Amino acid sequence: MRVLETSTRKGVIEVTIQVLKGVIHDEGEALKVQTKDACDFFPLVALATSSAVPKAMTAQAVVILCFFDESVKRSRGPSMEAILLDSLYRQQHGSLEPLAERRSKILKRKKQLEEIFQAQGSSTNTQTFVGLGSDPIKDASSERGDNSFEMEPEHPSLSLTIEHLGSFKKRRDGERKARKRGAKGAAIQAIKSQSQRDFKAVKKEFEERVTEKETVSLDLLKPQSSKWLEDIHKELSSDDAETRLIALWRFKAVHNRVAVFRGPAACAEFTTFALQKRLVLAEIVRLLRAAQVHGDLYFFPLPRDSLEIDDFFSKTQLCFGLLNTLMMDSRAVRHVRKAIPDLIDLQEASYCAEALCDSGFGEVLDAHQQSQNKKAVLSSMVALATFSEQAKAELGKRTAFLRQVLVECTEADGSEDMTLDCAMLLVLHLRGACPFSELAQEIVRLAMRVLGTSMKREVIQVTMAVLKKMLRIEREALKVQISDACDFFPLLALAISSAVPKELTAPAVEILCFVEESLEQPIESSIETILLNLVSRQQHVSSRSLDDESLKLLERKEQFEKMFKVQGSGPIAQPPIGLGSEAIEYANCQKRAWKEGHREECTKSGLKGKKRNIK
Fold it and tell me: CB-hemisphere CA count at 13 Å for 330?
C-alpha cells in the first residue's frame, strides 16, 4: 500500500500488484484476519479507478479489492464498494460537499497515476498478469523498451584496475545525473551501451584471473620464492579495498585447491608462510567486519540481463571457507593466536546476522545465503576448536550463543546434514570447556536428531561419544531431561541393529537402561514394553497397522544395518547382552512359531509374553 501510494514508476506498481496476487494466493486466510479497515486500501482504490491505467492492471486491482472487501464488511467501517462508488460519483458529478481527507487522497493519487501512465506509456503486456507463477521482476524488466523499469546499478563495481573502476563510476554517475535532468532516450542509451562494453571487458579479464588456479605452479616447500604469492601479498597491502578483496579471492581459490589435492601435510609450509606474513589474516578480519556494516553479498560488474549464481559471492563464505583450510594443524593455529578473540566475535556476529546485500537484487537471496553462511561459520568454529585450547575456552564461555546454535541446528530442515554434522563435532571438541549441564536438553535433542537422520558412520560414532561423555560426567543433568521413552527411538533402533558394531550398541544399551531408570512412570512408558510390543507386532501383524513411531523405528533400524554394511563395520558383532540379545531371541522365537504353526510350543517354553528385566 505504501508503494502504491508513493511510487512514480510504472514497473514498480506492476510488480506490487503481482506481489499482492501471490500473497493472496498463498496466505489468503491469514491475510483476511489482518484486514479490518477499508481505509488502509485507498491507494488500491485510486489505481482501480484511474482511466489511464491499463485494463489488465485495473482488473487485477478490482479482484484484490473484492478479496479484501469480504473481511472488511465484517467490521463497522464502510465497505470497499461504498468507498469506490462514492468516489466515482463525486468525481463525475462534482459534488460541492467537502471531501474527507482520505477520499481527497484517493482523487489526488488517481490523478498522479493517470499522469504517470500517460507519461510512461499505458501499453502493458497482458501476459504479465496471467497466472501466479510468473516472475514479477522478470516480467517488469521485459518492459524496458520505454525505460519504465530500469534498475540503477547500485551494486559496487568489482573492477580489476583503478582505471576500470574510475571509468565505470564516471559513466554510472553520468547516467544518474542524466536521469535527474530528465534526459531521455538516446543520451541514457549511449551511456548504458558504453557501460555494457566495459562490463564485458571486465568480465573477460576477471574470468581469466579467477580461473588461474588451474595454471598456478607453486613450490610448496619454498613458498617465499613464488612470484605469484609475492604479487598476492602486494595486492593485499594495497589501499584499495577491491584490490585486496580480489587478491584474497585468488589466494583462497589456489590454496584450497592445493589443500584438497595435495593434502594438509604437503601444503603446511605454504600455509604457515602465508600466515606469518599476517596479510591474509588481516584481510579476513577486515572483510568480515565490512560484511557486518556494508552487507554480505558482493556483486560483480556483469551485464544485469539476468540474476545468475555466478554474478556474486558471499564475503562471509569466502573468509570462513579460507579460514577453515588454513586451520589445518596446531602449527598453523599458533600464528592466529592473537586474532582468536576477534575471529570468535566475528563468527558469532556472522552467524546471528541477517544476510545483508550490496544490491537491491539481494533480498530474494537472504534466506539461502544466511543458511550457507551459518554452515561456513560452524565449519570454521570446528576447525578452531579442534586445534586451539584458547579457542575452546573462549567458545565455552558463550553458553547463550552455543544454545542458539544447537537449537537452530536441531530444528533445521532435512537437507541441512552438514549443519548437524558440524554442530555435533563442535559439541565433541568443546567437552571439558563447555558446561554441558546447562546445555543438556539441547545436546540430547541434537543427538537424537542426528541418530534419527544421519547416514554417516563417523557422525554416529561422534554422537555416541558425546552421549557417553554426558552419561559419565553429567548424569544428574541428563536425568532431569528424560520424560518420555519415545524421544529415544533412534537410540533404540541403533541398539537392536545387528550390523552395528558392539562398541556402539553397548553404550546405546547402557544409555537406554539409564533412561529406563529415570522415567517417572516406567510401567506405562517402559522401553522394554515398547520394544517387546514392537517386535511382536512386527512379526505377527501387517506393517500397515503399526503406529507411526513404530514404523519409524523399524525403518531407521534397516537404515543402520544398510549403512554399516555398506560403509564397512568390520566383523558383525554379537548382539549385546541385555536388551538387544533378548529382543532378538524373542523375535526369532515368534517368527518360527508363526511360520511353522507351533505357537503352543512357544507359549509352553515361557517366552511368549514374558517380561524380562533389561538390567
Answer: 5
Cα separation, 276 vs 282, in Å, equals 11
| Paired strand residues for 431 | 434
Tell me: the pLDDT tens digits for 144-154?
333 332 223 33
3-state SS, one letter per residue, for 82-134 = HHHHHHHHHHHHCCCCCCCHHHHHHHHHHHHHHHHHHHHCCCCCHHHHCCCCC
Cβ 225 vs Cβ 295: under 8 Å: no
149, 124 Cβ separation under 8 angstroms:
no
* Confidence class for position 470, pLDDT limits 50, 70, 90: confident
Contacts of 567 (CB under 8 A, 6+ apart): 456, 457
Task: Look at the domain 217-396 and name its fold.
Answer: Leucine-rich Repeat Variant (1.25.10)
CA proximity to 425, closest of 441, 401, 408, 409: 409
Mean pLDDT score of the chain = 70
Asked if 81 contacts 44 with a C-beta cutoff of 8 angstroms, the reply is no
Give the dihedral sign, CA 290/292/297/302. negative
Between CA 281 and CA 340 the distance in angstroms is 11
CA 294/CA 521 separation, integer angstroms: 56
In 210-318, where do the E strands start and end? 297-299, 312-314
Nearest to 417 by CA among 444, 449, 442: 449
| In the chain, where the domains are located | 2-146, 162-210, 217-396, 398-481, 489-615
pLDDT at residue 117 tops 50: yes
Give the span between the Cα atoms of 192 and 198, in whole angstroms.
10
What per-residue confidence (pLDDT) applies to 478?
76
pLDDT tens digits for 235-259?
999 998 888 888 898 899 888 888 8
- The 10 Å Cβ neighbour count of residue 600 is 10
> Which tens digits make up the pLDDT trace of 322-363?
998 888 777 888 888 889 999 999 999 999 876 554 444 444
Residue 475: what pLDDT? 81
DSSP string, 488-507: GHHHHHHHT-TTS-HHHHHH
Distance (Å, rounded) from C-alpha 562 to C-alpha 9?
A: 60
CB count in 10 Å sphere of residue 435: 14
**Bigger pLDDT: 128 vs 299:** 299
* Grid cell for residue 590: 515368534
Alpha-carbon distances, residue 61 vs 25, 36, 56, 67, 538 (angstroms): 14, 18, 9, 10, 58
State the angle between helix axes of 502-518 and 457-473 in degrees (0 to 180), rounded to the nearest 10.
40
Distance CA 261, CA 540 (A): 54
By the 10 Å C-beta count (0-12 exposed, 13-18 middle, 19+ buried), 98 is classed as exposed
DSSP code for 432: T
Nearest 10 degrees: CA dihedral of 284, 287, 293, 297? -110
